[in-house]
Design a protein that fits this description.
6 strands; three-stranded mixed beta sheet; 5 helices; alpha/beta; about 25% strand; three-stranded parallel beta sheet
Length: about 170
């Protein structure tokens, strides 16, 4: 098999969906205040922005609640994706694309190491083991045939042995 030459798309290039983690950590958010605003934000992306949204919910109860609140909007998909906090920009996969010799497009999901912005002594919150699994979980969610997102249903998870918050890089 040929080695693929993955490239990171520029930020302005079209993308298939917006990946979000639902707020759930009361140490970070005043949940009664943020949840209605977050729901409004999600609905606006899906309706006004005409963009698919994949919501990573902390647990099954949160998934059921968000499914009920967004049932009338077809391009919102809710899935269980446990996390310590809700910073998908930093913990979700960074996607890269390659085109092979047969002009087939391949999608890769970079799975950076995450240490809550500084590790156990200096990090913003600890532990963050669930956050370290978010990239792989989102890749698996996107490959689920029931998730109606216009992206490749074959995503290669590419572990990257580098500590990084995904939102700290720009292309």
């Amino acid at each position: 098999a040929a080695v693929l030459d993955y490239k990171m798309p520029a930020e302005w290039e079209p993308h298939a969906a917006c990946l979000l983690l639902c707020p759930h950590n009361a140490a970070t958010f005043c949940l009664p205040a943020v949840e209605p605003e977050f729901l409004h934000f999600v609905k606006t992306i899906a309706t006004e922005g005409q963009e698919a949204v994949v919501l990573g919910c902390f647990d099954e109860a949160q998934k059921v609640a968000y499914e009920a609140a967004t049932a009338h909007i077809p391009n919102i998909h809710c899935a269980v994706c446990p996390s310590n906090d809700s910073w998908a920009r930093d913990t979700a996969p960074t996607f890269v694309v390659a085109v092979d010799d047969d002009n087939e497009r391949h999608l890769g999901a970079l799975d950076w190491k995450f240490n809550a912005y500084g590790g156990p002594e200096e990090g913003c919150y600890w532990p963050c083991e669930q956050d370290g699994m978010v990239a792989r979980q989102f890749a698996n969610i996107l490959m689920d045939p029931q998730v109606v997102v216009p992206c490749s249903k074959q995503i290669t998870v590419l572990p990257v042995p580098l500590i990084l918050e995904g939102g700290s890089i720009h292309t």
